[in-house]
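Reproducibility note. Readers wishing to regenerate the assembly model reported in the main text can use the exact inputs given here. Chain order matters: entities are listed in the order in which they were concatenated for prediction.
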Amino acid sequence: MKTSIEELEGKIVATLEGELDTAAAIEVEKELQPLYKSEGRDIVIECENLEYIASSGLRILLGILKSAKAAGSKVTLRNMNDDIKNVFQMTGLISLFEVE
Amino acid sequence: MNWLKKILRSSRIRNSLGVIICAAVLLELISALQYYNAHRVVERELERRAEAQMWFKAILIKGMLNKTEQLLYDYGWNIQSTLANPDLVGSELQFMVDANPDVLSAGMAFTPGYYSSRDSLFELFAKMEQGRSMSQQIASATHDYTRMAFYANTVELGEPNWTDPYIDSTNYSNREMLITTHAMPMKDRQGRLAGVFAIDVSLDWLSDTLNARQAYPSSFDLLLTESGSLICKPSPQHANVDDVDQVVRLINDSTVARQQSSSGLTKVIEFRSNIDGDVGYIFYANMKGKPHWQLAIVCYDKEVYGPLNRMRYMLLLSMLAAMALLGFIVYRFARNARNLHLASIEQERIGSELRIARELQMSMLPLNSGSFPERDDINVLGLLKPAREVGGDLYDFFVRDEKLFFCIGDVSGKGVPSALVMSVAHALFFSTSSHESNPAYVMRIINETACRNNDRNMFVTFFIGVLDLPTGRLRYCNAGHDAPIVIGKEDVKLLPVKANLPLGVIDDYQYEGQEACIEPGTSLFLYTDGLTEAMDKQHNQFGLQRAFDTLERYCGMDNVVLEEMLQSVSIAVEDFVNGATQSDDLTLMAIRYTPGIENCLLHDSLALKNDLKHVPELNKFVESFTSSLEMEPSLKSKIKLAVEEAVVNVIDYAYPLDTVGDILVEAKSNGTTVTFVISDSGNPFDPTEAGKVDTTLSAEDRPIGGLGIFLVRELMDSINYEWINGKNVLTLKKKYKS
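Running the prediction on these inputs yields the following structure tokens for the assembly.
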């Protein structure tokens, strides 16, 4: 599981790669801490190479979304594969995020 | 006038008014006809009475007059024999006056020059003078009798006759007296006319006769001469003087309209009284024979028809009273009819609401046919026959997480109140068991609600069963309900149950659950007391034994059709009651358990510790197991996610914090379905009891956790939890190939 964060055109872009299972989630949550402090900047989660996500991963993204919304910024999920999109649909979370 | 309009607008009053008016018109017509007839009768009667009275009074008068005529005739002979000597004539006259008190005076007026020894005019006259009779010659130049009516008429007629009555105030004690003279021609033996013999009689008795015995209080009689002058009139206290004058005038006035009475004997004149304008009737006729006087009787309308009119007014009054009464009756009748109409509408409304309630209640129950067509391990069927439109019986069943939840209950009483309680119990059963698998706990929750505000002391007997379908383990709890019947391979017996208390009695009652193992091929038969207490006309009860007898033939049967089983019991009950009214709701439910034998083609297992760091290891195990099966990549991903979530749930919750424990994950496949069994020795924990996740909430409201078990349910076909031999056993299944 790899994560990286960069700033691009005033947005925070976090790239997730590999399998975000429950074990990996502990580490990922720490690494994504900066996203909890978006300070009004929109957030983009790049999912092109995200292969798998468990409910613990969903929890992290929901936490980020909640703090971003409180700060008035949007969270966009980009390039999700079908399996991951399916999980978001099943849980109803897809309607809460911006999806590209 | 608004009130009048309001009254007329009310159809009830309008109808009543119509009926009353019709009745009044009818009654008025009848009474008018009656009045007309009665008037005719009274009119006839009046004529008859008037004529009878006239006839009677005429006879009286004639009788009196006849006496005088006879007297004149008798003494005429004596006078004739004394004609030769005028002095003897005078004595004879004197004698006559002496002998007959009714005769005021007697006289003999001779033909002028009859006696050559006397004056040409010679009239002898005898009367009582101071108690003595005396006679004298009264003719003189001033008293020329030949010019007097009695003499002239008699000579002219040549026969006895009466003069018209007249008032004399000089001849007799200086008192006014009504007098009439009866005279006859007197011939001597040679046949010459000697003169006229006459006597005067008083007519005072006439007025007594006429005033006596009147037909009506104000009636009076009159006597008139042939020429119409009044002879005798009633005293002023008997009759009004003006009316008397008017009557005389009318009789003499030939222009006045008069009618013949219906007998033709009298004439009738109608007139209007001068006193009060009242109508009067004059009946009058001439007396037969001489004198040809006229007798008249006067009657007044108000006296003749007074009683009739009074009767008519009485009738009118009583008719009005009757109309008022009729009006009241009709009004009340109309109101009652309207109330009746309203009541029937109300009844219709209640009836239709009850029908809707029945449909609703029936729709709350699982469909009678087709319980679980997709399953081959379980089949359930229920049947409910309410005694009324709605009933207090219920049954329900559903499968959740590979467990069959079922219940049957009976609310005390029947009808709507029971149905309402039943609905509450049913809803509670459904909502509680959707996240709770322990029947005793479900029972406690329903009981608490049933006890709250149970003022009517309604109680519910209830039986809840939870059959674990993979293992056949039945957990159940009874609340005063009849024990279910177990139809096994060899025999039919009752499921051993603790009675416990019915629901709604004690709010903190600790219901105890029980367990039993249901062998494959066994049927359960549940019922309410509507079965055992079904009564025939002699009040014998169906009883449990008859149910046993009916169910016995299903022992050991391979292909039991539940519909047939329930129908055979239902028909047995119908045959038994034989047309007696169904006294209680009848509910039957049958469950048939036929699990297939697991055919395991592939088997693998993985032992883990309760640490999240083992999750990648678990995921690899699942990936390699599913790779060996033919299934789509996305399905593999789903299964991996579901198993991870289930195991993570166990890691998080099964063991107390900082305690190391074992978790065993077994993977099986029968060629079409993949099964994962996750078992641990931790605290009993049923993840299937986790509440549902609301996927429609907004980001702000959405809780962070709780998605794990939700995802397992969504991704797998079934999830089943059991506590078996001190272990939590969670079974996940997914069909990957049809």
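We highlight two features of this model. Chain B touches chain A through 31 residues (CB under 8 Å). The mean pLDDT of chain B is 87.
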